[in-house]
Design goal:
The complex is a heterodimer of chains A (258) and B (426). Chain A is of the alpha/beta class. Chain A is built from 8 helices and 12 strands. The N and C termini of chain A lie far apart (44 Å). Chain B has a domain of 256 residues. Chain B has 9 helices and 19 strands. In chain B, helix 2 runs antiparallel to helix 6, helix 7 packs across helix 8 and helix 8 runs antiparallel to helix 9. The radius of gyration of chain B is 21 Å and the shape is globular. The two termini of chain B are 33 Å apart. The relative contact order of chain B is 0.10. The chains are: A alpha/beta (258), B alpha/beta (426).
Chain lengths: 258, 426
Amino acid sequence: MATPVLEIRDLHVSIGEKEIIQGVHLTIRGGEVHAIMGPNGAGKSTLAAALMGHPAYTVTSGEVLLDGEDLLQMPVDERARQGLFLAMQYPAEIPGVSLGNFLRAAVNARMGEEQGLSIMAFHRKLMETMKSLGIDPSFAERYVNEGFSGGEKKRSEMLQMTMLTPRIAMLDEIDSGLDVDALRAVAQDINRLRGPELGLMIITHYERILQYVEPDFVHILIDGRLVRSGGKDLVAQIEEKGYDWLRAEAGLPAGTAE
Amino acid sequence: MTTSSTSLWSRESLLLWAKQRGEPDWLVQQRLSAWNALEQLSWPRWERTDLPPLDDQRLQPAESDVAGAQEGLRQQLGITAEGKTLVLPGGTIEDRSALPEDVLFEDLGQAVLGSGDHWQRWLGALVPAQTDRFTALATALWQSGTLLYVPKGCQIDVPLESYLWLPQGGAWYSRTLLMLEPGAKVTLVLGSAGPRQGEVLHAGILEGYVSAGARLQLVILQNNGAEADLFLQRHLRVARDGQVSWVLGDFGGGLQHTVTATDLSETGASMESWSVMVVGRGQHDDLEVIATHDAPNTRSEMETRQVVTEDGEAVYQGTTDIHRGARGTVAYNRERTLLLSDEAHADALPVLRIDENDVVASHAASAGEVDPEQLFYLESRGIPEPLAIEMIVAGFLAPLLDRIPVATVCQQISQLVQAKLGGSVR
């Protein structure tokens, strides 16, 4: 299969009347890790949620192609089946639905009806994957995200990503609220999946996770625009100087973000 | 399509028919006095259910297609109707081997013939004919129903099942009698279904007596056609330390009003009730569950979960009635509603009436729609919206289904929910 590619061209996204994303251009290919950094309120989560098709966000203009296909024309579930994945910062709780049953429905949907796994084959695959990630098998019996700790929620997102083998994955603040051990575990889950078959977008406003998952490209999002792109040395600059110098460089008013 | 072969629609023909059947005098008299009472009784007036005018044509007793019953029941309730199963009308059991000798499990219509006045004092004691016009009609005109008698100390481990197949038109009147002697234990599944099309009316009475220390698990599943109007009265009385567990699953039918009452009449008696209602296009389902605490140290716990789709209307009233003297009563009463469409309508009304100080009682009700964040999460994993909604509904019902003591029934209810939503969720 061809290398995955996500092409974002001049994307504008609004919530209600307010434009949050104001013309983003970005191309992510299989094998690449793109870090999107930026201050709070820059529009990082909006970018990911809009690409996934969250109903609260309206794409007002621009074009997004996943493997050459018009992503914006697809309903949410089809985007996922085409290989787009979003690890959410605040994943919803689904009471009464076990993580195992949920994953089975998701895996079968992703693989298509003909290639869907039997209950036994799915169970085997799930148990193997959980074992390789060091996740306790009883995790599959629990209701999706209900009563999960912050760390468990993130591991659950990583388990889902591993099971669903996406082509392009967006990880929205996958590092937030994690202690150092949990952060390492999540980083390990990500690194395990790196390879030519997967393009990654890692959204974060700390450099912490990028110490464990080394990005190929770093993009700075401020006020809904990518104001600077570069290599991983940009992370150190941000760490040292913050975002305001980039703001000034881009001709944006200082500190408009909340 | 109405086959009103039994034209019972006059006092004379009713008298003639009952006598020809060889019914005992007391039963003939009971029928005739109910018939006579019809004149004075008005149609019931319910707070949240409007009764359309019912002409005599709709009330005429009709007969079911017995030959089609098995296949129909298989399709609509997902049961095999084989083994120790009673299929009504007709009252055949294919295999009695699992039943202990003195257990009676048969068609009440047959059992009353030639049994003297044995059943007289039990029929009509809990649901009098004069309750309303439907109970009077059922008392006068019933032809068939389930009789289950379990003798003292007899514990039956396999669930017994009895299924009713309604006619395609006209009316069906049924009468069910359950008697558990002291220490008896049984699980009974009562299912009803009928042809998918055809305007039919079912008025039925269920009475049951659970003696000291006896345990009854009663599962009632209903998946009738969309034009089946159901008016049912069920009433159990529970004696000292007796236990009743109701499981109610309502899926089909058109206009329905059902009262399910349990009298906790002696010390230590307890009841629990788990109800699942899935109400969809063109349906109006009004279910009332009542627990009456009439003695000390009695316990009731009821929980209902309603799922309402399309333009369905669901009404649930859970009433906990604690009488003076019922000291040490513990009563819980919960209901939750999930609305799947803007047109769907639901009323859930918990009622607590307490006339005694020394009690623990609580009630809770909540209603809501599918959370868009849940839907987005499931869809973002590739799950199509109809399946996502089915999963959310299954999750909504899961905590209730987990409480149901019969595993096969949980599965059956899950399948009925799935089958019903599969057709209505888009």
